[in-house]
Amino acid sequence: MKRLVILMAALAAVLSAADINGTWKGSAETSFGKVERTFVFKVDGSKLTGETSSDRFGKSTIEDGKVDGDNLSFTITVSYQGNEAKVNYKGKAGSDEIKLTAEIQGAGQTVEYTVKKVQ
């Protein structure tokens, strides 16, 4: 009986989590100006993969992606004027949007994105 209760609780948590699979778009104000970014998320259990692209920084692969309920985190590598930087993302998914905070490693800068599902 105890196992059944635990299994049902785990199933309820999975079913209540937001579905972030698909394409999401949004923009953020940065020190470089407005940056539009597209995220393509693929979730397999608690693993998050995919890619992201922006008008200013090009395409990046999602690394170290994790999903825990409605919370997600991942890292990307961006290149700008010949310099590479790691950017750590953390976010919370809602029913129709994801609020993300991006932090450039070692720079102490954060950027806030709100992205909406496209497909």
**CATH topology term:** Lipocalin
Q: Which class in CATH terms?
A: Mainly Beta
**What is the CATH architecture descriptor?**
Beta Barrel
Shape: globular
Terminal CA distance: 41 Å
SSE succession:
HEEEEEEEEE
The CATH homologous superfamily is termed Calycin beta-barrel core domain
Bin the strand percentage: over 45%
Poorly predicted parts = 9-16
Strand tally is 9
Profile the largest sheet.
8 strands, antiparallel, barrel
When the domains are counted, the total is 1
Order of strands in the sheet with the most strands?
1-2-3-5-6-7-8-9
What is the residue-mean pLDDT, rounded to a whole number?
86
The radius of gyration is: 16 Å
Structural class: mainly beta
**Count of helical stretches:** 1
Helix content: 10-25%
Task: Write structural notes for this entry.
The chain has a single domain, classed as Beta Barrel (Lipocalin), CATH 2.40.128.20. The chain is mostly beta strands and 119 residues long. An eight-stranded antiparallel beta barrel has the order 1-2-3-5-6-7-8-9. The radius of gyration is 16 Å and the shape is globular. It has one helix at residues 2-16; strands at 22-30, 33-44, 47-54, 58-61, 63-68, 71-80, 83-93, 97-104, 109-117.
Give the key terms.
about 120 residues; mainly beta; Lipocalin; globular; eight-stranded antiparallel beta barrel; about 15% helix
Question: Quick recap of the structure?
Answer:
The chain is mostly beta strands and 119 residues long. The chain is 13% helix and 65% strand. The protein has a single domain, classed as Beta Barrel (Lipocalin), CATH 2.40.128.
